[in-house]
Amino acid sequence: MKVQEYIREDSSNPYQEWFDSLDATAAAKVAVARSRLESGNMSNVKWFDGIGEYKIDWGPGYRIYFVQDGKELIILFGGGIKKSQQSDIEQAKEFYQEYKKQKKKVSEEQEKETKEKNKKDK
Asked: What would the pLDDT profile of 92-107 be if each residue is shown by its tens digit?
């Protein structure tokens, strides 16, 4: 699986911001979890409303929030801990809606460019 971090329209990266806030040991645990996602291991994942929550059974109960886009792509939205789980889930849902809007916009722009190119080629 290909794993990418979600980049917002303002160029911010919520996942990277969260990851950078972790101490070294927590960051190592999260990095291992990410590599497991890359290898397709979803054994610690719960799904709700299209959002995946990867649970890391260590420390304060770290979580990684993501969406699977097709069969080969995972988009990382961010993370959190058990204590902030509900607000982290709500934020992941907001990022998912933004992601879908961005993806639709890009698709429409590509379609428009293709039509214009086809007109010029005729």
From this structure: 999 999 999 998 988 8
